[in-house]
């Protein structure tokens, strides 16, 4: 019994989309599996199974998608492509010009003209940036080449004669622990303490005639601008009211002057100097013509010795 038409589904589908759908279902695949294998958008696969090709841009796309679908389900892609052309002859009647299409990659690449246009625009942008940052063409400036530098020959200048240094920084450096006091001409105290070995004090340059009170001068080293000067006093003798300004210290001696005694002449030089020096001529002493008489000299008198005779004893007769 065949039954009435429309009650039994057709055993042999007539449309390409139905054949592909049945082949997919026979293999237990989902439509998303076909989309992953063929890289064809899912909406186009749904349109193919529904035999609705109006959303496809051209017959070339439709044929390429059908061939890729057929390969994914092991169907005859050549026969299905032929059937699709016959099936869509009315749908794509106005589109009889077919474009070459690679069914292995149904995703269309952008036209070559767009690619070249983008590359040209990129090159123009790079050139504009180079001109903007490399020159002043677009910033209203004028690039002026630097003029060559003129090298002037220096004329010989006379060497100035050295001028004496006026003023200077006086520094007191303790070589061993020592107590000292610095004060000015008005008696105002500038510095007073027991300095440790190696400690230093800079006397103010604007101080009014600074002076020092120091118990052991040998324990203080004095410098002017870093140059040593003569000691402030003899070792072991306390000093007081000794000026320590730069001018006063220079008056005592030039910076760095040595306080050692002058060199003694050698014996040979001393003998030669004595030989070259004539001996002085003795001057005769004048004798007085009338000498004054000498005063009498009182001679001491000899001591007088008084001898007392012993008392005489009177004998009594007839006793």
Automatic annotation (TrEMBL):
The keyword S-adenosyl-L-methionine does not apply. Residues 172-240 form the Cytoskeleton protein RodZ-like C-terminal domain. Residues 267-278 have a biased composition (Low complexity). Residues 279-312 have a biased composition (Pro residues). The chain crosses the membrane at residues 113-133. Pfam families: HTH_25, RodZ_C. This is Helix-turn-helix domain-containing protein. Keywords: Membrane, Transmembrane, Transmembrane helix. Gene3D superfamilies: lambda repressor-like DNA-binding domains. It comes from the Bacteria. Residues 253-319 are annotated as: Disordered.
